Amino acid sequence: MKGMCPWGGRGMTRREFIRTAGAGTAGLALSLKAGLVRNAWADDAEQSLVLRVANIPENPFVLGGNHHAGLDTLLHVFSAGERRLYRSVESLDLLAGPDGIIRADDVVVIKVNAQWCYRGATNTDVLRGLIQRIIEHPDGFTGEIVIIENGQGRGSFDCDQDAGDLGPGVHANALDPSQSFNAVIAMFAPHVPISAYLLDGISGVELGADDQVNDGYVRMGFVTYPRITTAFGTRIDLKNGIWNGSAYEDRLRLISIPVLKDHGGAWVTAALKLSYGILSMHLAPSGGGPYHYDELGTATGTIWSAVRPADMHILDAIYSVKGGGPYCGTYNESLAPRTATLMASVDPVALDYVASKYVLHPVTGNPLHHPDGAGRFSAALAQAESVIRANGRLANAREQSIARADGVRGTINLLGKRHREGKATAEDVRRLLGYYHGGGWVS
Q1: What domain range includes position 426?
Q2: Nearest-angstrom CA–CA distance, 253 and 160
Q3: Which of 55, 165, 361, 417 is the most exposed place for a label (fewest CB within 10 A)?
């Protein structure tokens, strides 16, 4: 792992950093206050943060077992820079804290892209690594994991859709292309309540507001959202939470894992448009016309704010589809170069902005993939920003309002700046430094 070199600018060498900040607590605090760990971050309380990990090894399981090297690094920097992964008052691990995302008994819904196959689908190695981390909750995970997708009639957790030139069979986006979503679920099924729910079969079923018996979709103005019963009998309303028979409980967490790719209609599809696999096209107004694509930003922004903001968006850019999206048959290697990147944010607008500008556009040169250009994609970003903000959530479609942290070193710089401003404690910094010194990370 120590041979995985951090990317992006010179930064500081490990020896330089240890010499600067490794002389104990007093030396650390002095070095931070003196500004020896710096970065150019705008002082803006309304900033969105986007975290990026690059240079992910082709075999991501070099840590052993189900631990994905790139995903593990991303979760650590997200926990340091944004919010802890685990909610726990007992653990002092970098991933845990009293205000963390996942409690030990939560129901975790993971939204993937399973409408297409191969490079057009969520990378199942990333999913595997995320599930492993969830079940390693320091307080002992007693909750449930549910993977969902509405492929609008095309979805499959077996990754066996018509793949054109790839031919029939299973075509998963993974180191092992036979590792479908269902195969990943089978790995963990003996150890934790985990299941998948393909929403395609209920996408034409509209439920009344008080229907707690049937599975289907609830209409909420311009959009719809699912209400389902899992294989373990858990009743999930994606907006309101977990139904206990008489009331909703706040035990529902939502993590989205979109894929970065070209799209013939939306121009770019990533975190925002993944929400089209939450709503129902069958129940859309005017036969789905407004969703394609004049009101793209309105629909996606409404899902990610008025229905349920994702607790974390993990953008899969290990391979970035640069042309021919979204169909399975177009995902040959020449159209899906390996960009070896994962990104995360709580703001899907900022995440799509940064990913398109700094990952997708550089490998395509296509002006349609640039978020600062005029046209459908930039219009959707601005539209979604407006809707999400109107619903009281943070969203930014302008670069000056987006902070970026590249890897562990960039996140250390971020915490250094926050520490100097009194917005991060020395303990916050020490935890990240401990992870840095351990060396088990990629850039």
Answers
A1: 37-438
A2: 28
A3: 165
